[in-house]
Each structure stands twice: as structure tokens, then as C-alpha cells.
Amino acid sequence: MSPELNELYVRLADGRRHNGAGLADELGISRAAVWKRIESLRRIGLPVEGTAGDGYRIAHPIELLDADAIRQHLNAPSIELEVVGAVDSTNARLAARTPVHGHALVAEAQKAGRGRRGREWLSPPGGIYLSLGWHFESGLAGLSPLSLVVGMAAARTLREAGADAVGVKWPNDLFISDAKLGGCLVEVSGAAEGPCQAIIGIGINLELPESSALDQPWTCLSRHVDGFSRNRLIAGLLTRLAEDLPQLDQSGFDAFAGQWRQFDALAGRKVHVSMARGENFGGLAEGIDDQGRLLVQHGDRIQALASGEVSVRGR
């Protein structure tokens, strides 16, 4: 987000109505330039209501990202925090850095957010969009359950904020009932035997307009929790990851496997599985194995499915 666009965004974030002429005077630009910047903000997903004649406003105030406020509640000295405006993708921006270990990039919005399997992730201003780089001595095989650990860390943080019903739909989507609240995108590179580098991206819907066009049922945190702080949530999430990631690296998934039952959004449910190679079948979700693979009772056998190979939807 350019400094000029950010100036206008900061003013609108309070949720009050702002007269176009007044904004022009404050910013030292013409009313036509204000309108152009409003249109730019709308293009990145900010739901700005109104016109130049009756003033501009957003329906719900946005707590602006504040690096100092995040650091105040961040109990993770190893993490280096960077707060930015709108970026194409926090994962892509972080991947361009060297080194990435311990670096957390948090953005006001994403213009080209990505979900699992290359899907678009709607990322308007006001949500949580963060990426964290981490170095692991573990090899690629040992990190196959990383997505599950990240999903559970996010779910636990949200539950501590009051969203008691948050669960994880294998491997790492955040759900309340059957509506998607958020998701994670974990990208790992390195050697089969180690070391490896991971970029962990997390997106959480805090407030979305009713008109949001998504391809599945969705929800946002404001529907379930009152009075949460965006900056404190980010600090809590990064603190949790800074605790869990070293434990996974040192002790493996054994330390986390027993926790999955608390968060499993598919346990005992009928599911439909779509394999990458085109095979489709239905079955009953039976939890995970000690490698984090989803167990599906299919006919007279139980099939273990590895992360990234399937698309699973409860039905």
C-alpha cells in the first residue's frame, strides 16, 4: 500500500463518515484525487460506502496494525517483526528475504493471497495475514505434520480469545461449525534428511462484508467474539508458534498427536475425498495416525491420506 493510499486508509479505519471535501483538505489533494484513492481501496477489498457528495465510511472500524502494540504482547524474543500495508502475498514477500528464520511479516491486506492448492484467498484490509519463516533441522519427511501443528496453534489462540467452537479441518483449515474462518499455507524447502526451511502463512477472517463472494460457507471472528484485539491476536499466534515449532523440530509429532482430538472438525463425519490423480471416494473420518495422515474408513479398510494429496469436505 503506497504512503498516499495509507493516509486515506488510516482516516477511514475509524468507521466514521468522512466528507470528501474535508478529506481533500486534510490530504492536500483534489476531491477527484480522493475519489481515485477510494476506488483503489475498494479494489483491494476495503468496503467503502458512500460517495463524494454524502461522505465516505466503512461499516465496521478496523484496528490498524501497530508494531509496538504487537511487540508489547509478543512473548517470543527470537521473532523479528515487520508490519507492512497491502502486499501481493505475505508468503511470497517473505520468501524473497534472506534469511527468513524467525522473521514475521504481517500485512494490512493481500492483493493476491493464496490458499492451499493454489486457490485464491480473499484478503481485504482488517484481517490477519501473516507469514513466519522458520529453520528446521528435521528433514522433509519429519515435517509432513507441520500443517497440523500450525492449524492447532491458530485454533488454540482463537479459543483463548473466546472463539470456543473453532476446530481444524484436516490438515489446517480453521472452521466454526461448517463455515470457514481461516486457513494456513505452509511451504517447505530443503533436503529429505534436513535441514529445511518453512514459510508458514496464516489468514484469518476477522470482519468480512456480507457481500463477499466465496466458493464455500464462511464466517468471521466478529460473528462469534466481541471486543477482540487484532494486534493481540497476532502477538498470541506468533508466541504460540515460537513455542510449538522448536518442539516439533526437536521431539517430532508425538508431542502434538494427542492434541488433535480436541480440534478435529471431521471426527466421525462422512467425508468425500478427491485424490490429485483423479480418484474419488467417500468414507468416514477416523482421526489421524502418528504421522499426521488422515484416516478414512473406506469400505472394509482404513486408508491413510497424506497432506496435500486430497481435498476433503464434510458432507
Question: What is the structure about, briefly put?
Answer:
With 315 residues, the chain is α+β, with helices and mostly antiparallel strands. Helices cover 28% and strands 29% of the residues.
CATH superfamily of the largest domain: Bira Bifunctional Protein, Domain 2
Runs in which pLDDT lies below 50 for 5 or more consecutive residues are none
CATH architecture of the largest domain: 2-Layer Sandwich
Return the CATH class of the largest domain: Alpha Beta
Number of DSSP E strands: 14
Structural class: alpha+beta
Helix content: 25-40%
From the alpha-carbon coordinates, what is the Rg to the nearest angstrom? 21 Å
- General shape: globular
Tell me the strand order in the biggest sheet.
3-4-5-9-8-7-6
CATH topology of the largest domain: BirA Bifunctional Protein, domain 2
Number of domains: 3
Number of helices: 9
What is the H/E string?
A: HHHEEHEHEEHEEEEHHHEEEEE
Quaternary structure of the protein: single chain
Strand count, sense and barrel status of the largest sheet are: 7 strands, mixed
Strand content: 25-35%
Mean pLDDT: 89
Distance between the termini: 40 Å
